[in-house]
Amino acid sequence: MVLTLSYIAIAIYSIALLLIFFYSLAQLNLLFNYLGHKRKNDEAPKFNLLDPREIPYVTIQLPIYNEEYVVERLLENIAKIEYPQNKLEIQVLDDSTDESVAETAGQIAKLRETGLDIQHIRRENRQGFKAGALKEGLKIAKGEFIAIFDADFLPDSDWLKKTVIYFKDPEIGVVQTRWGHLNRDYSLLTKIQAFALDAHFTLEQVGRNSKGHFINFNGTAGIWRKECIIDAGNWEGDTLTEDLDLSYRAQLKNWKFKYLEDVETPAELPVVISAARSQQFRWNKGGAENFRKTVTRVISAKNIPFKTKLHGVLHLLNSSMFLCVFVVALLSIPMLYIKNTFGHLDWVFEVTSFFIASTIILFVCYWFTYKNIQGSGFDNFIDYIKMFFTFFSVAMGFSLHNSVAVLEGHIGKRSEFVRTPKFNIKNLADSWKGNKYLHEKISPNTLLEAVLAFYFLFGMYSAISLNDYGLFPFHFMLFLGFGFVFFKSLTSKA
């Protein structure tokens, strides 16, 4: 019986490791695409904005929900956008349920007095959440092109001039820009989030887009062609990542996406772990929901090549890698005892080398994206090594929380769209304490994360007692990761 269970555990462990390895190979392929693209010149057709006849009408949509701390900053910033007033409309899609509604209305009234075409659009309910608000605004939008910004994004004044020009190509349905980070250096948590997002917005977005593979509109800091939204079936609120959903539906209908790595749109990162948790849960569950909703259409599509299908499937499975990591972590300690109990199974554990190879591949891939933003040189490389392993540890510490999200997404369990609280924090002098949108309730996963921290401490003890140190670094990182997530979850409350 014990041997049979051991074989089952080995099989599950090996499959999870192989899936992680395949994911890392896909990332390596994206790295080659990324480096190749950096050597090319962009010769895309562009609108000549000096010719009034070529200036398109643009609607800026600002979906907000209870954004008391950042809405004033948002509206002041958007009002500075440099674009002909007769070709610009701003829609504030306000689903708020608190006193911020009156403050927002007052500020909009003042901006309207300056000649700005800005509308305060309210709904009776939050049906469809953000997707529903965007869809409602689209019904009356005057613009041919729809720029979208979440409440914590602060585009530069010339942002429209740098982006809308690419729609001269009639096949372009979306132009997406790279996210920047206003508070990257606020804390270890913000540094880790920035590190992960930078990899997505360089390696992944450029790597896919440069070869015509599917990418995703990132929910904000980008522009849609209105015709593309309608043709793809409009916004739908049946997943938590409506942006990924519409992106795939549009590209399956042959619309092209344009990604601009050189145009940075700064935004605020969550500064407390409860806010990061809600954001991570929504993104990872939404990714799994979109896999469930879309993967069959991607695989069966006749209009896209095999390699694009493969990258599309892996892209939709991105969040599921957390589940693979969690399975590998959970089974790693039983594997240690199986290895030292059944000598004839020693050869099986060579599969563990796949995890080492995956880590090395990701280490190399992330270095190229890191140095592109932070710079190269020996000192930066040392900083990178520390940041990579810190990120890796904390990402594994989030694996339980994110695995729950992924499983809920795959089985089709519905849940409410939970917004990420905003703080209006840029530097160390600013404080998040007292933010009324934070929940004091601790996540139910937090206690389990404490148990898992001690579980991997036991793994380290097991390595010493069995004199088998192969998994010791892995268990040490898991101990640190789960310990960090538990400690921050316990202490970072309003």
From TrEMBL:
Domain of life: Bacteria
GO biological processes: cell wall organization
Compartment(s) of residence: Golgi apparatus membrane
Transmembrane segment boundaries: 6-32, 312-335, 347-368, 446-464, 470-487
Protein topology in the membrane: Multi-pass membrane protein
Sorted UniProt keywords: Cell wall biogenesis/degradation, Glycosyltransferase, Golgi apparatus, Membrane, Transferase, Transmembrane, Transmembrane helix
Database matches in InterPro entries: Nucleotide-diphossugar_trans (IPR029044)
CDD domains: CESA_CaSu_A2
Major subcellular location class: Golgi
Stored Pfam families: Glyco_tranf_2_3
Gene Ontology MF, one: glycosyltransferase activity
Protein name, as recorded: Glycosyltransferase
Organism this protein belongs to: Sinomicrobium pectinilyticum
Lineage: Bacteria, Pseudomonadati, Bacteroidota, Flavobacteriia, Flavobacteriales
